[in-house]
Amino acid sequence: MKALIIDNEEDVIQSLRLLITQYCSDIEIVDEARSYQEAKLLLNAYQLDLVFLDIELGDGTGLELLQSVPSRDFEVIFITAHSHYAVQAFQFSAIDYLLKPFYPERLQEAVDRARIGIQQSAKLQQLEVLVENLQSSTMPRRLVLRDMDNIHLFELDDLLYAIAEGSYTRLFFKKDREWLSSKNLKYFEGVLKKGPFFRPHQSYIVNLNHVLRFERVEGGSLVLQTGQHIPVAVRRQKQLVEQLMRLQ
Asked: From CA 139, how far away is CA 65, in angstroms rounded?
């Protein structure tokens, strides 16, 4: 497994590197980052399996760093001196977290979990590719979304709209269901381009089948059957009207 250590304390990096060398021989530490900015560069430079990530980096946080990654295909083990960060860590799908100072047993447990996560991720990616290939010629009926452990299928007819949240996307479905995906909005624009979906604003994609009306007042907005108002950029209004007319 190729791994990166991100921490702003040199002694912490060296301590963790030594423990990994002694107790996790299959991990190759490809590099180390000591700041938020350096970490951003290295995350783009390497194909990684695992990242050991400090939550507090001085010029930013580990949580902000993960939010800045458009698509994350590596496992994360947070390292921190404060146990209250654990909940936040798991909200970002961290595989585990290590408290400073480090203990060999906890390190081995966390790495074992990472190995399982990497294996599962590889299998899920293979299945996603297969599903995408099968759906490439026609508009898919279902949206395939995955988390760390499972693949979830959502009916595309039930998708109301999607909104960008940084490099993530939050999808809203009927019956008050929603999903936060690590994929960005541009990814979903590509997936949904063959259906009744339209991007009226840089931060939104809307299922036009659930639109009640288009209001031109106050800059323009789409009103959904469920009551939500979705903004429409002025430069996209003409294309929107044309697409709405094609739904007749």
From this structure: 34
pLDDT tens readout for residues 167-213 = 899 999 998 899 998 889 998 888 887 788 999 999 999 999 999 99
Q: What is the pLDDT of residue 155?
A: 86
User: 142-246 has which fold?
Assistant: OB fold (Dihydrolipoamide Acetyltransferase, E2P) (2.40.50)
Q: Which residues contact 107 (CB under 8 A, 6 or more apart)?
A: 16, 19, 20, 23, 24, 98
Q: In the CATH hierarchy, which fold is given to the domain comprising 2-128?
A: Rossmann fold (3.40.50)
Helix, coil or strand: residue 51: strand
Q: Evaluate whether 20 touches 70 at the Cβ level (below 8 Å).
A: no
Alpha-helical segments (H) within the chain: 10-23, 36-45, 62-67, 86-91, 104-134, 185-191, 237-246
Dump pLDDT digits (tens) for 111-143: 998 888 777 766 555 555 545 544 444 555 778
3-state helix, strand, coil in the chain (%, to 5): 40, 30, 30
Which ranges in the chain are annotated with CATH 2.40.50.1020?
A: 142-246
For 211, the enclosing helix (H) or strand (E) is strand 211-215
Tens of pLDDT along 40-99? 999 888 888 899 999 888 888 888 888 787 667 788 898 887 665 554 555 455 677 788
Please tell me the predicted confidence (pLDDT) of residue 130: 47
CA pair distance 136, 147, nearest whole angstrom: 22
At position 52, the amino acid (one-letter code) is: F
Pinpoint the residues of the chain covered by CATH 3.40.50.2300: 2-128
Q: How far apart are CA 51 and CA 25, in angstroms?
A: 16
